[in-house]
Amino acid sequence: MGERPYVLLSCSVSLDGCLDDVSDTRLLLSNEADFDRVDALRADSDAIMVGAGTVRSDNPRLLVRSAERRAARVAAGRPENPLKVTLTGRGCLDPDAAFFTTGDGGRLVYCASGGYRRTAAAVGDRATVVDAGDEVDLGLLLADLYERGVDRLMVEGGQRMHTQLLGAGLVDELQLSVAPIFVGESCAPRLLGDGRFPADPQRRARLAEVRALGDVVLMRYGLSPRFDDGC
Ligand SMILES: NC(=O)c1ccc[n+]([C@@H]2O[C@H](COP(=O)([O-])OP(=O)(O)OC[C@H]3O[C@@H](n4cnc5c(N)ncnc54)[C@H](OP(=O)(O)O)[C@@H]3O)[C@@H](O)[C@H]2O)c1
Fold it and tell me: 206: Cβ below 6 Å to ligand 1?
């Protein structure tokens, strides 16, 4: 495997560890201060990646909201917004989703070969679609992003994305914010599905910071030797 970007996974959960509830509308877990934390991380990133499930369920724009942060990126010779990245096996993506219709930072879709033609036909004029082989291997995907100039990647969901990346030991930093609500639905998506992860009772993760953001608590964990604690 080649070199890869620094990978920062940022997500919000309820007190009972849910990423969302089971309703059709997106559950708001963050507050304004937490959205601003996310915005600062986006502005610092070369690319932002979510799974196709999140593109379909949340319809995120994945843009930098703050005009000052966008201006600082431009002054530094970067696009106003980071590159957007998603991956799909089936290729079931709506070209009118905000992922494809907003922002200036470019869009990349990694697609398993089986869904490539469908994906290229649907969104090929709005994104670069990459045939990633029979199964999208996340290690190879990260190496490819690195070759495209992505040094710093922010991952923003969803559950399957978290499970695969953490399970493969490909996350350097986790920023987890906990919102003061219970979802209380056993079918609601949790932070992770089944798997083996880089921190366990023998190898506990390194807690680097705990910060109160109004009624939300942010925890920052280092999960690899590459963890950059900002000091
Ligand atoms: N609270 C938060 O911070 C937060 C953030 C983001 C999302 N969420 C929530 O998370 C939920 C969505 O999670 P999710 O697990 O359903 O979706 P997801 O992880 O966003 O996306 C899963 C989809 O990505 C594609 N995919 C992932 N790995 C792949 C691989 N190796 N090869 C090919 N395709 C791959 C597949 O797309 P295809 O099905 O197209 O093949 C798969 O169905 C939603 O409820 C959303 O609200 C919460």
Answer: no
